[in-house]
Design a protein that fits this description.
The protein is mainly alpha-helical and about 250 residues long. The chain folds into two domains: about 80 residues, Winged helix-like DNA-binding domain superfamily/Winged helix DNA-binding domain (Arc Repressor Mutant, subunit A), CATH 1.10.10.10; about 150 residues, Four Helix Bundle (Hemerythrin (Met), subunit A). It contains eleven helices and two strands, in the order ααααββααααααα. It has a two-stranded antiparallel sheet. Strand 1 and strand 2 form a beta hairpin. One of its GO terms (molecular function) is DNA-binding transcription factor activity.
């Protein structure tokens, strides 16, 4: 195995510090080095990666940094994290971060995702605002339960979290108590399922952050709905969708 990159506290010359390929966050360069090892076969499919403590020692960083890097790799489809059982490399054909796909294939997929996001921007910001006005105690309880499912989904292969993510957005529509809005959301649910992996991966890329923060952002939308603050619920949903749109519109 090649030596790991120097940690943030180790001495480096000015050229390496200013190199554009050097990520700004410690979790970024830990993720990048682990991804390189997954690509070159250092960790073959099915192989168990070193423990969090071992990676902390190897890279000279804290546990939160390693966990953030692992969360990003999981969102990219490169590893599977089993609660209490360690982290394992996935086969190369597993879904990866959108930026790692073939350019033409990703261009077509991005165009479809962009159209879905345009519909979501119009539909879901209005749903969030109306849900804040019309939600009932049972709606609030249902949304809270879905957030708990999303949090539990951080510890599996991602499927549970993705399903809860879709159900949460549908639950916001149901909290409007407008049957037409619910029908409209349900009509795009299948497309929403198909696009959710890309949406989640792009959100993580845009935020340079972890899946835990994605759950917190959904909770912030929920809290505005729960308080009955229609304007804030609309604003937070708008910001949530805008982050993904921003990455899609950046030149590659």
């Amino acid at each position: 195995m090649s030596p790991p990159p120097r940690g943030p506290n180790e001495t480096q010359d000015s050229a390496s510090l200013s190199a554009p390929s050097r990520p700004l966050k410690s979790s970024d360069w830990v993720r990048a080095d682990l991804e390189r090892q997954l690509e070159d076969g250092t960790f073959s499919p099915g192989a168990k990666l070193p423990s969090v403590d071992e990676l902390c020692r190897r890279y000279g960083v804290g546990r939160s940094t390693v966990r953030e890097a692992m969360s990003a790799l999981k969102a990219m489809g490169r590893v599977s994290i089993r609660q209490g059982g360690g982290t394992y490399a996935l086969a190369s054909e597993a879904p990866r971060h959108p930026a790692a796909r073939e350019p033409d294939a990703w261009h077509d997929r991005a165009a479809t995702l962009r159209r879905i996001l345009e519909v979501r921007r119009v539909l879901e910001t209005g749903c969030a605002a109306l849900a804040a006005s019309n939600r009932t105690a049972s709606d609030v309880a249902a949304l809270e339960s879905l957030l708990a499912d999303m949090a539990r989904g951080l510890d599996d292969d991602g499927a549970l979290g993705e399903q809860a993510d879709v159900r949460f957005h549908l639950g916001i529509a149901e909290a409007t108590h407008n049957p037409m809005l619910v029908d409209m959301m349900r009509s795009i649910t299948e497309r929403l399922h198909d696009s959710m992996k890309d949406t989640r991966a792009l959100w993580l890329y845009a935020e340079k952050s972890s899946a835990e923060r994605l759950v917190r952002e959904h909770r912030s939308i929920f809290e505005a709905v729960k308080r009955g603050d229609a304007a804030e619920a609309r604003r937070r949903m708008e910001a949530h969708i805008a982050k993904v749109e921003q990455v899609l519109n950046e030149p590659t």
